[in-house]
Structure formats: structure tokens, C-alpha cells
Design goal:
The chain is α/β, with parallel strands linked by helices. The chain contains nine helices and eight strands. The chain has a six-stranded mixed beta sheet. α4 crosses α5 and α6 crosses α9. The longest helix has 19 residues. The protein is elongated, with a radius of gyration of 30 Å.
């Protein structure tokens, strides 16, 4: 029994090593039939000593090529992605890194069975531009701004010079590229959490740490109205971007 245990212990590192040198790969039938895998995988195995076993199901694969994951290469009218299903496996990582490397990409591009290379670098995917519409009562938003924001900000021409001098006006904030994010989540951006409450959104002030000043309280309708007001206002002219010499 002791000899068997000793033999098992000696064999375990070799078993782990052998497993690291075997990657189970799944690829759709169209990719397999193209011949690209028979062309590139032996070259990968020769370089890394990692053997590839193709499996029928992505569920049993260490790495799958398909429509999800990181874009790796294009061909056959689509972009093929790497889905690392066993990211902790060293052989799987080697295959993924090789496919994305310059050598792997050149190997893919050199496959030209009919004199034309059907595979190449991944095609940049166009992102759909979503237009964000801001619903809300702009007139109410102006009223809310004057009543609740002028202790710190100038919110229109009539309140220029009001508030805190170092605090940007609404028109200056409106000129920033991320103004929507700033206003939509202003109540979580310092210093607002210390004195701002949004009904049914923010937690009440802790009993032992109440607001140091009179709280500002808004509901969701007022917040949407405020954003509608800011969306309709003219942005301040901030001049040309700074140029570093």
C-alpha cells in the first residue's frame, strides 16, 4: 500500500503537466470545414508543445471559438471570438495569447488555399449610437434650480455671482462632455451626499451624523425636470482646449 501511494505521488506532477499540455477546443462546423484549424493548430503545437483536441460541445471545451468573448480574427463573413472557458488552464492561455499575437495573426493571414487569404485581423465592430432623450418639465427644472441649487451655483443669468465663487455655474457644467452623468448622479458626487436627499433613492442621514446644513430634498420628478432645464440651456463658451508646449 505504501509503494502504491508513493508511485501515485510521483505520478501526480506528470499528470498535471500532461493536462497543461492538452487543450480541448470547440469550433463551429463552418470554421472546421474551412481548413483553417488544420493549418494553424499544428504550427501552434510545434511551437508550444501543447496538443489540441477538438470537442463537439463548448460545454466540455477549455476554449471555444464563436460569437462571444474577445475578438480574435475575421473570416467567412463574421468576426470570431475567443471564449476562455477554462481561463486558469496554462495551455488554454497559451493558445489564446498565440491567436492574438502578431505571430498567430500572421499565421492566420498566411492561410490561402485558393490564393486568397480568407482570414485576417478582427474587423472593428461599429457601436450603435443611442440617442438619450431627457423627459421632464424644464420650467419646473428652472424653479427647482433657483430654489435648491443657488446656495452654491449660478443657475441662470439672473443668478450670476450667486453661490460660491469657486463652484462652477450650470452653464459651465453644461459645456462639459459628461454633463448628463454629472447631473443625473450629482447627489452621490462630493460634497452633495452630506446634505442632499433624493426621495426613495438615497438613505436617510445617520442619526449620529446628520446634515451639517439645511438639507436639499428632491424627488425623481424634480431631478428629471432639473436635467431637462439644463439640457435646454446654452452651454458656456470655455474657449479652446489647453495646448501643452
Amino acid at each position: 500500500m505504501m509503494w502504491r501511494a508513493l508511485i501515485l505521488m510521483l505520478c501526480l506532477p506528470w499528470a498535471a503537466l500532461a493536462d497543461d499540455r492538452l487543450v480541448r477546443l470547440h469550433a463551429p462546423e463552418a470554421l472546421v470545414d474551412s481548413g483553417i484549424l488544420k493549418f494553424i493548430l499544428p504550427r501552434f503545437s510545434l511551437k508550444t508543445q501543447v496538443r489540441i483536441e477538438q470537442v463537439d460541445s463548448p460545454e466540455t471545451a477549455d476554449l471555444a471559438l464563436g460569437e462571444t468573448g474577445r475578438a480574435a480574427f475575421s473570416g467567412l463573413g463574421q468576426t470570431w471570438h475567443i471564449d476562455l472557458r477554462n481561463a486558469d488552464h496554462s495551455g488554454t492561455k497559451k493558445l489564446s495569447d498565440w491567436l492574438l499575437s502578431d505571430i498567430g495573426q500572421r499565421t492566420l493571414a498566411s492561410f490561402a488555399p485558393d490564393g486568397v487569404a480568407p482570414f485576417g485581423p478582427p474587423v472593428a465592430e461599429e457601436r450603435a449610437v443611442v440617442e438619450v432623450s431627457i423627459d421632464g418639465d424644464a420650467a419646473l427644472g428652472h424653479k427647482v434650480s433657483v430654489e435648491k441649487c443657488t446656495r452654491c451655483h449660478a443657475v441662470d443669468k439672473a443668478t450670476t455671482g450667486w453661490g460660491i465663487g469657486s463652484t462652477p455655474s450650470f452653464s459651465v457644467l453644461r459645456a462639459l462632455a459628461d454633463w448628463e452623468e454629472r447631473f443625473a448622479a450629482f447627489y452621490v458626487l462630493n460634497p452633495h451626499p452630506a446634505f442632499t436627499q433624493i426621495t426613495d433613492v438615497t438613505d436617510p442621514f445617520p442619526i449620529n451624523r446628520p446634515s451639517p446644513i439645511s438639507p436639499i430634498e428632491l424627488d425623481i420628478d424634480e431631478l428629471e425636470a432639473l436635467m431637462a432645464y439644463v439640457a435646454a440651456m446654452a452651454a458656456a463658451d470655455l474657449g479652446q482646449p489647453l495646448e501643452h508646449q
